[in-house]
């Protein structure tokens, strides 16, 4: 390994990345969007007893005739109250501005990692950082449900783009991009998304580890990397430059300043979204 490669490895994975992680935790938080990052609280509606708890009753009584036998028939009809109160509608998040989706979808430094039909009526482009806890919250709690409900059904095309805030995040993205069997080739979406999912689920294990290189190495071995392919991937200067170029384009051209940021059918939203919130937003565009 050359001196330049050693320098790159040190910059990516030494303890300096731990200090940079503190910047990430601040940068990826979006205080302005705290309310839209979570599903709005629902208020419980109680139906008053006088309005709905008392069933409506109608009674019909037969008339007695002069015959010895008198028959009286009583019929009671009960209208039950509503079984449950309706759940309030989810409040849609507020857009932070418009973006030109034709420009957003133009090819960049790296091929887009995309799931779903190319002609889906809704396109979501997420800019995220692998060391951002809000991004982990979205991918761990929301992404799978959205994929099953909308991506797999052809309603949404989901594109994920790199926006690393620190060297350790960049290293994780590089590993997600590398083909573990041949690091001179880039991986496909079918391998990329599972790697990102694993990194998000185990974020606390590797993102804040004292020895970032060792933590990422152990994670990468689960994805089929060897120590040699791991090192080859992380010393690929062109790949690092391309990952950073994706981030810079997002910031300069589309106004991305926090993670996660979603560009959805020409609108920009930032902050984690719950399943209910993102579902409501997608439904409003279908």
Automatic annotation (TrEMBL):
Keyword Signal set for record? yes
Q: Which residues form the signal peptide?
A: 1-19
Recorded hits in CDD domains, A to Z, give: DsbA_family
Annotated Thioredoxin domain ranges read 81-286
Q: Which UniProt keywords apply?
A: Signal
Top-rank taxon of the source lineage equals Bacteria
User: Which Pfam family, an example, fits this chain?
Assistant: Thioredoxin_4
Q: Where are the residues of the annotated region Disordered?
A: 30-98
Stretches with biased composition (Low complexity)? 39-85
Family (UniProt) = Belongs to the thioredoxin family. DsbA subfamily.
In terms of PANTHER family, this protein maps to:
GLUTATHIONE S-TRANSFERASE KAPPA, THIOREDOXIN-LIKE REDUCTASE RV2466C
The task this protein performs is described as: May be required for disulfide bond formation in some proteins.
For this entry, the protein name equals Thioredoxin domain-containing protein
Organism per entry = Shinella zoogloeoides (Crabtreella saccharophila)
Upper lineage is: Bacteria, Pseudomonadati, Pseudomonadota, Alphaproteobacteria, Hyphomicrobiales
């Amino acid at each position: 390994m050359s001196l330049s490669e050693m320098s790159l490895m040190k910059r990516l994975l030494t303890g300096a990345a731990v200090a940079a992680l503190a910047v990430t935790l601040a940068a990826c938080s979006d205080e302005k969007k705290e309310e839209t990052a979570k599903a709005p609280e629902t208020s419980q509606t109680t139906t008053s007893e006088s309005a709905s708890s008392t069933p409506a009753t109608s009674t019909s009584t037969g008339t007695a005739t002069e015959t010895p036998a008198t028959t009286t028939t009583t019929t009671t009809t009960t209208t039950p109250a509503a079984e449950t109160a309706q759940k309030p509608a989810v409040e849609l998040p507020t857009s932070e501005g418009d973006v030109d989706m034709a420009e957003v979808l133009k090819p960049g430094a790296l091929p887009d990692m995309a799931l779903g039909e190319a002609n889906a009526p809704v396109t979501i482009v997420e800019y995220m950082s692998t060391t951002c806890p809000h991004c982990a919250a979205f991918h761990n709690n929301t992404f799978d449900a959205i994929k099953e409900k909308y991506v797999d059904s052809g309603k949404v095309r989901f594109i994920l783009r790199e926006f690393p805030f620190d060297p350790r995040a960049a290293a994780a993205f590089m590993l997600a991009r590398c083909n573990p069997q041949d690091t001179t080739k880039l991986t496909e979406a079918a391998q990329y998304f599972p790697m990102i999912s694993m990194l998000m689920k185990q974020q606390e294990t590797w993102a804040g580890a004292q020895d970032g290189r060792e933590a990422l190495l152990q994670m990468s071995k689960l994805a089929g990397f060897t120590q040699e392919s791991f090192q080859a991937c992380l010393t690929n200067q062109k790949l690092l430059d391309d990952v950073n170029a994706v981030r810079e384009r997002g910031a300069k051209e589309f106004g991305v300043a926090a993670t996660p940021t979603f560009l959805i059918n020409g609108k920009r939203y930032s902050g984690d979204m719950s399943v209910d919130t993102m579902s409501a937003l997608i439904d409003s565009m279908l």
